[in-house]
Amino acid sequence: VTQLSWHPRAFLYKGFLTHEECDHLIKLAKDKLEKSMVADNESGKSVESEVRTSSGMFLSKAQDEIVARIEERIAAWTFLPAENGEAIQILRYELGQKYEPHFDYFHDKVNQQLGGHRIATVLMYLSDVKKGGETVFPNAEGKVLQEKDDTWSDCAKKGYAVCALMLPLIH
């Protein structure tokens, strides 16, 4: 585990997922991807936005042994109970797609009442890209090109963005 930034708090965990786990997650998501949505600031409902142009889907919590094992590993790494975690979301960014800088917490009262603000966000990279695809923390120094099986942890209220990819993440 390498500390990348203290403000926001960001760590890189090389080898968090095995290549087999990465491939399994991609396979689970591949035929179920839909346009990614964002939470509406007033209602908390999912809405389309040009802020986020990827496609994605949510896995069911502990939907199989591999997903359950990954969720338990996330819980151990973040020191947070697995039952407090959200369902894993799989995203694909194709050429020119993005998620603009944002804060990873909820502005709306609906989501705050459902589970409250996020304490941590864990980003897991499922495939390699030669150019683009990095996560940028605008309030921190530098950026790092992520590799398959790399995982990030970050302070949700400091904001991050995913830059446009030159190659697709999920093949």
TrEMBL record:
EC number: 1.14.11.2
Catalyzed reactions per annotation: L-prolyl-[collagen] + 2-oxoglutarate + O2 = trans-4-hydroxy-L-prolyl-[collagen] + succinate + CO2
Transmembrane recorded as keyword: yes
Top-level EC class: oxidoreductase
Mode of membrane association: Single-pass type II membrane protein
Gene Ontology cellular component annotations, sorted alphabetically: endoplasmic reticulum membrane
Keyword Metal-binding: yes
Top-level taxonomic group: Eukaryota
InterPro entries the UniProt entry points to: P4HA-like (IPR045054), Pro_4_hyd_alph (IPR006620), Pro_4_hyd_alph_FE2OG_OXY (IPR044862)
Cofactor: L-ascorbate
Alphabetized UniProt keyword annotations: Dioxygenase, Endoplasmic reticulum, Glycoprotein, Iron, Membrane, Metal-binding, Oxidoreductase, Signal-anchor, Transmembrane, Transmembrane helix
Protein family per UniProt: Belongs to the P4HA family.
PANTHER family named among the record's database cross-references: PROLYL 4-HYDROXYLASE 6-RELATED, PROLYL 4-HYDROXYLASE ALPHA SUBUNIT
Protein name per the record: procollagen-proline 4-dioxygenase
Species the sequence originates in: Opuntia streptacantha (Prickly pear cactus)
